[in-house]
Specification:
The chain is an alpha+beta fold and 271 residues long. It has one domain: 2-Layer Sandwich (Cell Cycle, Spindle Assembly Checkpoint Protein, Chain A), CATH 3.30.900.10. A hairpin with a 3-residue loop joins β6 and β7. The longest helix is centred in the N-terminal third of the chain and has 22 residues.
Length: 271
Amino acid sequence: MATQQQVIQPPKTNTLEVTSAETSSRVTARILAWSISEILKERHVFPADAFQSTDLGDENTVVALQRQNLKGEFEDYQEAVNRLLDMLSKVFKGIFAHQVTAIILQFHDGQDMNKLYEEWRFELEHRDDDQLKQMTAKVAGSRGVPDLDKTLDFGSQKFVKPKLSDSEVSQMASRTIGMIRDAMKTVKPIDFENNDIRLGLTVHYTKEAYLKGDIPPHFDIQEDTSVKRHIDNPKRFKVSSADLKYNAVSIKMKTSLYRGRSAKGKKESVL
């Protein structure tokens, strides 16, 4: 049976528990894979058959783009799906090595490369044990460094704990995907049928990765970074964030397709 592990480097276990820097990076990649897949599915970039659902419990589900044989009218999507999965696999290897600082998905005009309709930005932060100790010491102040096994309150940041249980991470992933879905309710559909709209993928690496020559070969789908795309009067959102001790992810979106709040009138987090 196909699983979301085909999107990223297959972990040794299906658990979402965070117990080390390695498991933190793997869970971060898993949440990113689900988040990117959710956007691609909601934006109808690929047919629904290209995605596999996973139950996280408590009636919470996520989807992941899968490497599978699409049939019939969807067969033409097969090459694009496989190519994107190959590229994401390389990107997630960079996450495991703490080399990736941002992943950017862009929907842009196929004729005017500077015209951007929507952008999703995943900003990544990587920490080591020394950085975590400095953070805890800063929070503790004159009281000394607190017990790292306890939940820490960083004010505007979310909590950071050395260990996160499977259920805690599942709740974090479900909340992240839920916020992406809420953001999607505020934007107009992308009309791929009547417009030449392309998907662009850009990845930012650390300076150290560039110096070491660890950057993967130029991606076919990745556009020329010298092209400065812009959105006229964009609506900007801070969609969600997730903190997994050694890794933190912030998800932002800007769009020209904003249509207003959801039917429930829920207030969005606007940058």
